[in-house]
């Protein structure tokens, strides 16, 4: 089943608990939390305190995407805050195997992230060790960007590698996802769709989520 993970980066920061609860009630599968440190990407968003603050508002998996330098230093903070899934950029982690292992040892699902300009084969060394691969379909750092069609080729390559090895690994996509681009990603092999603006610009969150899912 295709999962939809609304990105709270596009939500109302002044009432984030209610926003998360509304996404839960509207049929979201995961809640996506974009963490930026002002180093790996220019903006600064929020940290483990946000995860801790929204945890009481939903039982859905909290999916944390670390856009930070030295992500291995953040694992314990997010585990203690209540995160369920933690993904790190292959471009940011000097010791990727060790970082992935540490995430799983902390009891969370482990994901790795590929920028649009990073080839799919960069995921291969740890593909059997992760729970999901997040393919960025925009350059990370800012919400509301346009979808990069060239990223579809990476999704197809990831799907081929996963299927060839018969691995239970999801492919998540994030960036410029709307009902049209979502279906393009699903056709290419994606199974988890992160959407921000396309969900929160609509008054009816349930309708928006269903449309992203292709229903």
Describe, in plain words, how this protein is organized in 3D.
There is one protein chain. With about 220 residues, the chain is α/β, with parallel strands linked by helices. It has a single domain, classed as TIM Barrel. About 35% of the residues lie in helices and about 20% in strands. Strands 1-8-7-6-5-4-3-2 form an 8-stranded parallel β-sheet. Strand 6, helix 5 and strand 7 form a beta-alpha-beta unit. The longest helix has 15 residues, at about 150-165. The chain starts with a strand and ends with a helix. Catalyzes the reversible epimerization of D-ribulose 5-phosphate to D-xylulose 5-phosphate. It catalyses: D-ribulose 5-phosphate = D-xylulose 5-phosphate. Its EC number is 5.1.3.1.
Topology of helices and strands:
Blueprint: E1 3-6, H1 16-25, E2 31-36, H2 48-54, E3 62-67, H3 75-81, E4 85-89, H4 96-105, E5 109-114, E6 132-136, H5 151-165, E7 170-174, H6 179-188, E8 192-195, H7 197-200, H8 205-213
Parallel strand pairs: 1-8, 2-3, 3-4, 4-5, 5-6, 6-7, 7-8
Helix pairs in contact: 2-3, 6-8
EC number: 5.1.3.1
Organism: Shouchella clausii (strain KSM-K16)
Family: Belongs to the ribulose-phosphate 3-epimerase family.
């Amino acid at each position: 089943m295709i999962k939809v993970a609304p990105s709270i980066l596009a939500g109302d920061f002044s009432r984030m608990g209610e926003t998360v609860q509304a996404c839960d009630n509207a049929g979201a599968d995961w809640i996506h939390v974009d963490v930026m440190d002002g180093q790996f990407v220019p903006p600064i968003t929020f940290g483990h305190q946000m995860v801790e603050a929204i945890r009481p508002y939903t039982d859905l998996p909290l999916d944390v995407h670390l856009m930070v330098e030295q992500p291995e230093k953040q694992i314990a903070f997010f585990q203690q805050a209540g995160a369920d899934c933690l993904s790190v950029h292959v471009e940011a982690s000097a010791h990727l195997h060790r970082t992935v292992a540490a995430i799983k040892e902390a009891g969370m699902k482990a994901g790795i992230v590929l920028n649009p300009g990073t080839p799919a084969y960069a995921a291969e060394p740890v593909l059997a060790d992760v729970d999901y691969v997040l393919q960025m379909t925009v350059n990370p750092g800012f919400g509301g960007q346009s979808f990069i069609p060239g990223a579809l080729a990476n999704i197809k390559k990831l799907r081929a590698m996963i299927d060839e090895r018969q691995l239970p690994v999801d492919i998540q996509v994030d960036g410029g996802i709307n009902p049209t681009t979502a279906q393009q990603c699903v056709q290419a092999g994606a199974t988890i769709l992160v959407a921000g603006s396309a969900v929160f610009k609509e008054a009816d969150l349930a309708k928006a989520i269903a449309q992203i899912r292709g229903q």
